[in-house]
Automatic annotation (TrEMBL):
UniProt GO cellular component terms: plasma membrane
Subcellular location: Cell membrane
UniProt KW keywords: Cell membrane, Membrane, Transmembrane, Transmembrane helix
InterPro entries in alphabetical order: Pra-immunoreactive, RDD
Membrane topology: Multi-pass membrane protein
Protein name: RDD family protein
Domain RDD: 6-104
Keyword hit for Zinc: no
Positions of transmembrane segments: 12-34, 40-61
One Pfam family named in its UniProt record: RDD
Length: 124
């Protein structure tokens, strides 16, 4: 993978993270209000909610639009190579070793791209 594409993908992920933070904050406030006497319940509910929002956000945008807001701003899109599986893509995306996987792959691709049969390209 070319270095500039990796940088663009990283910036796109940061943009998407900011959008996700804006989506999560209202839920954080509501759940913290109703669970203030039970921190374990708060952590449980927030963990479940954050996972649903993260997976839903990336799954919706990548499957339906072939891009996310961050990728769109950075001029990137996802192409399907063969039988693309966006659920697999998003499960592997949040794997702890995914971020360094591009270093171990000869083509510099991420595990989530390889397993899901997708590729991120620049839109000209």
């Amino acid at each position: 993978m070319e270095t500039h594409l990796l940088i663009k993908r990283s910036i796109a992920y940061m943009i998407d993270s900011m959008v996700l933070l804006i989506l999560i904050i209202p839920f954080f406030m509501i759940i913290s209000y109703f669970t203030k006497s039970n921190p374990v319940l708060f952590m449980f509910l927030m963990t479940i909610l954050v996972l649903i929002i993260l997976m839903g956000y990336f799954y919706f945008f990548e499957k339906n639009l072939k891009t996310t807001p961050g990728k769109k701003i950075m001029g990137l899109k996802i192409i399907e190579l063969k039988n693309a599986n966006y659920l697999t893509r998003n499960i592997y995306k949040f794997s702890p070793l995914n971020f360094i996987s591009f270093l171990l792959n000869a083509n510099g691709e991420f595990t989530h791209d390889l397993k899901a049969h997708t590729k991120v390209i620049e839109v000209k």
